[in-house]
User: What shape does this take?
Amino acid sequence: MTLPVHSLAARYYTDPKVFAAEHSGLFARTWQFACHASAVPNPGDYLAFDVAGESLFAIRGRDNAIRVFYNVCQHRAHQLVTGSGTTRVVVCPYHAWTYELTGQLRGGPNISAVEGFDKSSICLTEVRAEEFLGFVFVNLDPEAQPMEEWFPNARSEIEEWVPNWSELRPLEWVEIPENCNWKVSVENYSECYHCSLNHPTFATGVVKPETYDIQPQGKCLRHTTECQNLEAMTYEINSGFAHHDEYSSWYLWPMFSFQVYPGNVLNTYHWRAVDADHVVVWRGWYSVGGADNETVRRLAVQDRATTVAEDIRLVESVQRGLRSRGYRPGPLVLDPKCGVNSEHSVMHLQKWMREAVDG
Assistant: This one.
């Protein structure tokens, strides 16, 4: 007899040592969201950010390419930039060593006095970066496979659902702190077994629960569903594109997801793990050119008041429960037919989570 698959032990969500292992390992060896390309629109524009405990910065070159570097001078390790801005060259604030936008050393005070000094051999340390439909992702592993191999077909599918992606810019970022482990939040996002009981607006006003399914595509979890009667939606649906009457989502392991609402409205999730007990979820909403858009604004407000508020209560209760000495991991509900009442997507997630910690 085949035994049920049980959920992960509580320590994976509560032990600071597990989080430390993820921080130095998983977060540094996976594709992590850096910024939207529109944050650095012109040559010399830069933006500093952190990934896996490392300070990095993205900068657009004169060739229009966006490059990402470790935010550290190759001379005596002073950090080079903070926040965002624009510059002709990157100048270290400590000793004025100067770098081209390509990262190559251009010069520094009195370096000509150093016998054998070869400035052509000195360059800022570059980080693997890819632009994915206007979103910049980085991977600290120089040997990492490209995103297309990690998330097969996700790029082309999102292009189908959001054909005007190149025109979109961030309209609004909604910051949502949650008192739970990042994996609790991701698991909650990645199953709809809980939806009918806890998300009445989403389950009855957006999707047809009986058609909801989640399947893996490489390290992507693909959410698909038919939608309810569009005339019953709370906003006017733009029917100018294909798939305007569908909802779909692409969760990219481990901390980012694209989702598209009816009318081809793009929304993203970006999980930023703080420690074993805290995560911040950034919800991004987008419009053409970043211009104010009443439909998008209304969706963001509705989402924050319904699904988001409902999920905060759920995930924070789970985190408290995981710390209970009375908890014994129960079997996952794995329906061979998959569907909305199956946790097969959580099974895949927990396999990735276990492998990331235990190897």
Remarks:
- The first helix runs from residue 11 to 14.
- The longest strand covers residues 168-178.
- Residues 32-143 form a domain with the Rieske Iron-sulfur Protein fold (CATH 2.102.10.10).
